[in-house]
Amino acid sequence: MSSVPHLTTALTGPLQDLETHILANQAEIEHWFRSQWLSYRAPFYSSVDLRNAGFKVAPVDTNLFPAGFNNLNAAFLPLCVQAVQAAIEHLCPKARRLIIVPESHTRNQFYLESLATLQGIIEKAGLEVRIGHIDQQQQVRELALSSGQVIIQYPLHRSGNRLHIEDFDPCIVLLNNDLSDGVSPLLENIDPGQTITPLPDMGWSSRLKSDHFAHYQRIAREFSDIIDIDPWLIDPYFRRCGKIDFQKRDGEECLADNVAEVLATIQKKYHQYGIKEEPFVIAKADAGTYGMNIMTIRDPSEIQSLNRKQRNKMARGKGGSSVSDVLVQEGVFTFETWGSENAIAEPVVYMIDHSVVGGFYRVHTNRGINENLNAPGMHFEPLAFADTCTLPDKMADPDAGPNRFYTYGVISRLALLAAARETNTLKVAA
Question: Is there a single domain that holds both residue 83 and residue 132?
């Protein structure tokens, strides 16, 4: 089986035009990115979920606490190691030790495999690495993984304003916990001589997707001016609707109005480009999702017809947290499929510092082209990206594998830049 899924569209039309534009303007694009990284420090790592509708390709989520390193193509390990070394040079050039803070209270084997892979990458970059948990249970955990690896999680301690594990005092504390449950007092007001990254305020107890996509929207317009394209081809429309109580049914009218407005705006674009598909939107929690609190809406009337089970599902997030702010985002079809079953797939691109280090496909056999794939029953294809997202081939067709992946890499770096500007805004405010 081919390592690249069959792409059922994009052989003609706007997406191929987009890829052509990107290839033709590669030098200008890379120059522009270099100038941006001089002004904005890229997050230590990130992953971006993309959707390829054939007529547009756009990010629909940007994760600053990625947890799928075990799904990357092992052939790209040297890229990961080099990118970590670059990130360390920016954060703490003299660093010898690093602590990873993982998700709390989890024995999910897939997550733990990612954690072990991440630890291995950073160790190969030349650092001593420990994993330090912030759970209340102050015990050492030795966890055996199905791959044969063993990871050890130590209780994280604080002395004064520094974090440590026993006598292991690191220069860098790397968060791999999205802080949906709030920022632990352990992580607040850390000694400036000890770098904690990403900033705790970028966790989902503080961060909003609508803020991120507002930054992305501005960047998409800047970028589109460079290569002379319609920004809509790379940017999903969105609106924010706050103060919703799904269980009490308060705020439903606000949500329905925003859904109607986004649907109408999408329909105008569909008419402009002769797209016959029925537009849809995705309503999801504005703070994180973890694959939760997501629903597909094709008509505003669907809001009033939600049953109790659906309302309860939308009302509670990760760890039982309540959901009151909702992002209404343009739904982007995915017309990429995987394997003989033609399972619906979407690309996920991974970055360390400002470098693309590979990616994979999230695949779901029981979901449709207009549905969220980050749901129970999904699986990943670790070998999906046969090539990195950094090596376009100008001699090949625009939709050839290396060129498609390069386009994915460019769009993902735009989302990465949005996250960098997001972080910078927090630093300035502080």
Answer: yes
